[in-house]
Prior knowledge:
78% of the residues lie in helices and 0% in strands. By secondary structure, the protein is mostly helical. The longest helix is centred in the last third of the chain and has 29 residues, at 183-211. The chain is globular and about 50 Å long. The model is unreliable at 215-242 (pLDDT under 50).
Amino acid sequence: xxxxxETYLEGCPQLALQLYIFLEHGQANxxxxxxxxxxxxxxxxxxxxYQVALRKSLPDKNLFNGPCPKLVYLFYKLFTLLSWMLSVxxxxxxxxxxxxxxxxxxxxxxxxxxxxxxxxxxxSTSMEILYRIVVGFILIFTFFNIKGQNxxxxxxxxxxxxxxxxxxxxxxxxxxxxxxxxxDYFIPVSITIVLSLLLGIIFLLVYYGTLHPNTSKETKxxxxxxxxxAQRDCRMKYFLME
Length: 242
């Protein structure tokens, strides 16, 4: 869990800065391309790592069955993250204040959802509040399961909003392009955003449709009464060690 927090808190702003510099200058060498790819992959893989740790810590969850589900899940995170980061950077070019207002609003929504879900990851109330604030920040960039529960409806709403906001940003740029972008340069960026988002949604559907480890009913029935608090402590310690 700490690794996930560290990666998103450091990696996402760094990735946004790298993309901003790349789009501003319009040219990049191999090192800059490699840095962007590595940053994007590192952030995406941290979510895969979190899912693996989450399933190991919950007794009613099956583990990933082989490398294929992990790869599909990684591609789903990678493409949706790339599309969103490019969209955010385009919005920064358009208006920095609007971009920060949008991100702040999404952050507040993420915090609200974490409070609504009544997460119980930490022992103390103050640390739990801090945990929910960080969760809200991560939810700006990607959706992840914060309690190991069924999140079909919240995730569907999340990506519907993501698609609408992304399309809205692109429409604004198509009707009011900035002088920093010429037609030959902006079209490939727009295509990259749309294709990345489309591929991400496809990998999401493939993962949850065919490769998602289903909840183990047998393990859930074998739970012993009175052991839940101990499992909660073990879960927190396990995440901290990860």
